[in-house]
Amino acid sequence: MIRVGICGYGNLGKGVEAAVYNAPDMELAAVFTRRDPSGVRLRTPNVPVVPFSKMDEYRDRIDVIVNCGGSATDLPETTPAIAGNFHIVDSFDTHAKIQEHFEKVDAAAKKGGKVAIISVGWDPGLFSLNRLYMNAVLPNGNDYTFWGRGVSQGHSDAIRRIEGVLDARQYTVPVEDAMKRVRSGETPTLSARQKHTRECFVVAEEGADLDRIEREIKTMPNYFADYDTTVNFISMEELRKNHLGIPHGGCVIRSGKTGVNLETSHTMEYRLNLESNPEFTGSVLTAYARAAYRLGNQGENGCKTVFDIAPALLSSVSGEQLRAKIL
Amino acid sequence: MIRVGICGYGNLGKGVEAAVYNAPDMELAAVFTRRDPSGVRLRTPNVPVVPFSKMDEYRDRIDVIVNCGGSATDLPETTPAIAGNFHIVDSFDTHAKIQEHFEKVDAAAKKGGKVAIISVGWDPGLFSLNRLYMNAVLPNGNDYTFWGRGVSQGHSDAIRRIEGVLDARQYTVPVEDAMKRVRSGETPTLSARQKHTRECFVVAEEGADLDRIEREIKTMPNYFADYDTTVNFISMEELRKNHLGIPHGGCVIRSGKTGVNLETSHTMEYRLNLESNPEFTGSVLTAYARAAYRLGNQGENGCKTVFDIAPALLSSVSGEQLRAKIL
């Protein structure tokens, strides 16, 4: 059994816990937290909850750490710190800083003789993989990524920071007509507005100025100003009843040409429809934790991304069985 | 530049030729054929056409061979024979015999210190990869593969063998309603008939017994008897006008559950829509030829499948650029 440690027990950590629980070849060895461990209740029985500061004491009891912190401030610090002592997987998703993160983690992992796999999840992650495969097979073409319909945590948080807002959920919604055009082989240039719309469900304080809140949302730079945004004011009851889930998904579509004169058209599409973003992302991380452990056992070290991992390393099934049943 | 040799110059060989022509880091070094070389005209200028029997003379002039023979009788012989002397990629697709082929090729490639990648294409190939990724991420679930709408060469050939038939094209067509059910997260048990229908376009000899031909098609064991089949008799002119292309495609859909009690549903889908099956398959083979060459340069040897190839090996772009642009 591969002994997994989870670092951070929010929604993503819980998703990893469930995936490890259902994996035939893995067991949860410990959960590390910065909170008071006595306040953390796991769903897996008989697993210790340990202060983050004591992780090093578990070096002989854990094969791989899944780091479930946030990309903004947590992962840039903790992944390099942990990578010197453990094989590790994280879901770092700040695109602009991936190379910087990669280099720091690589140095730490090489020094410790460990394997780290960063930016694992579905985007970055499975979507990136599909962009790579599609580009390698059809080097002449264009690809498009659409997200949603799904909850954007960042946009929901941005709305919550507006005065008079008690709670909010923001759904990112792909524009059906744009997807249809791309799927049909067209290669349009699409603005942010032409690709996605934004749907907001907002619970306001009693007596709040709803017009002002709506205006502040719709004109917020970076988050909403470049999109067609709809704002729906709802009650706290309705939010709790209809908007507590964290669904997400989306698709990557590439249309490309082959032939000596690039006269032949093809489209490739990869699509996800996820009832729970953190549970699915946790499942991806868990599969890559298996790969990190195996690569470590093969004597590899340093930082990798999903691009560097041979697919068979993700599966609990043997090479011969994979060739017999899945190839 | 990676120097590629193509073995066999049918539709697939021509597809590889076009993909190599459009690859920034590859060049076509020679085409090997069992036909009279003087009768073979390539689309790439200044490339020698060489009798198959003289391939060994090209050991120092070729980095990797793409074997474009057929799976029934050609590849089982030629891939093991070539794998002792060259890195090689093939598209062997007789599912039941993959393990046998793998072992023969593996022994030859190991003896020669070469890398072979077998069963490359889209199914087996990209579809297999997606089945593997989907199963690794969602181990609890069901997956479904649908093919088409596209031309099945084997079924078209089977019709052509019927007395009184001059020419024929058979299209495999996925049942829309079945795909819709699977996409929605249902996990039905589907018979062959419930997943695909078969559409035949047949040119008959003048005066042939059309009823008999239609009956012989519809009752043909293995090929048609288990499917709802429609037979359309058309003129040779119509066949030439509307049915000379070799389109294909299809999709892999997996629906699976996550959560400690498997209470959360997700669906993953991979879809291809190909205007030319051999050109697309040739493009996949070309990307894997790059990987075979690189693995060979790293000192690897033996037989691999798409499951064993890290995705970055397929791309002409550097790791740092991939992380910056595609991750």
Describe this structure in a few short sentences:
Chain A is of the alpha/beta class. Chain A has helices at 11-21, 75-83, 98-112, 126-137, 153-160, 176-183, 192-195, 210-218, 236-242, 277-297, 319-325, and strands spanning 2-7, 26-33, 49-51, 64-67, 87-90, 115-117, 141-147, 150-151, 165-174, 196-204, 228-233, 248-258, 264-274, 302-304.
Protein architecture, described:
The structure is a homodimer of 327-residue chains. Chain A is an alpha/beta fold and 327 residues long. The first copy, chain A, is 34% helix and 27% strand. In chain A, the strands form three sheets. Chain A has a seven-stranded parallel beta sheet with strand order 3-2-1-4-5-6-14, sandwiched between helices. A four-stranded mixed beta sheet of chain A has the order 8-9-10-11. A three-stranded antiparallel beta sheet of chain A has the order 7-12-13, with helices on both faces. In chain A, helix 3 links the parallel strand 5 (87-90) and strand 6 (115-117). In chain A, helix 1 (11-21) packs across helix 10 (277-297) and helix 2 packs parallel to helix 3 (98-112). The longest helix of chain A is centred in the last third of the chain and has 21 residues, at 277-297. The model of chain A has no long low-confidence stretch (mean pLDDT 96). At the A-B interface, helix 1, helix 3, helix 4, strand 13 and helix 10 of A face helix 1, helix 3, helix 4, strand 13 and helix 10 of B.
